[in-house]
Design a protein that fits this description.
- It is a single chain.
- Strands 3, 5, 6, 8, 9 and 10 form a six-stranded mixed beta sheet that branches.
- Helix content is 3%, strand content 41%.
- The protein is built from one helix and ten strands, in the order βββββββαβββ.
- β1 and β2 form a beta hairpin.
- By secondary structure, the chain is mainly beta.
């Protein structure tokens, strides 16, 4: 469950990632007809050498392409359709583009397959802002990753 709290005016939209990568420009016009222009550049998040299997005897490390992550990004990895769910969150810092799933969480998995749900949340700095303030946040979900117990 994700709960969002908004204060003041807001805009929320959902897009397919196939049409969203690259550079975007957003223009907001207030009630006085003043325009505020902001830009967003986004590259699809990618795993480096995505694993095909997981083990119940060692932690699982997922490494992300540093060109698709930025320091401050929040990556969350959870299970889908599992008998024993978990969720790991990690804030990307400089030179640390990986998330580790502890062996204790993997040992709880009873099925032969493990489906991982991977998402990223990124705050986008605004170049032009109204006097009331505002923020832009991008949330992105990768396609689920299927791992076999091995």
């Amino acid at each position: 469950i994700r709960i969002f709290f908004y204060k003041g005016a807001f805009y929320r939209t959902t897009h397919s990632m196939g049409h969203f990568s690259n550079q975007h420009q957003f223009v907001f016009t207030d009630i006085n007809n003043k325009k505020y222009e902001n830009e967003l550049q986004f590259k699809n998040m990618q795993l480096i050498n995505p694993p095909k299997t997981f083990s119940t005897t060692k932690s699982l490390q997922l490494s992300f392409d540093s060109s698709s992550c930025k320091p401050g990004d929040e990556i969350t990895i959870g299970t889908m359709g599992s008998d024993s769910s978990f969720s790991e969150s990690h804030t990307i810092s400089v030179n640390d583009y990986s998330v580790t799933i502890p062996v204790a969480d993997l040992q709880k998995q009873k099925g032969k397959d493990l489906w991982l749900d991977i998402s990223i949340s990124r705050d986008i700095p605004l170049k032009q802002n109204t006097k009331e303030g505002g923020k832009m946040n991008l949330e992105y979900k990768m396609k689920p990753l299927k791992l076999k117990k091995g």
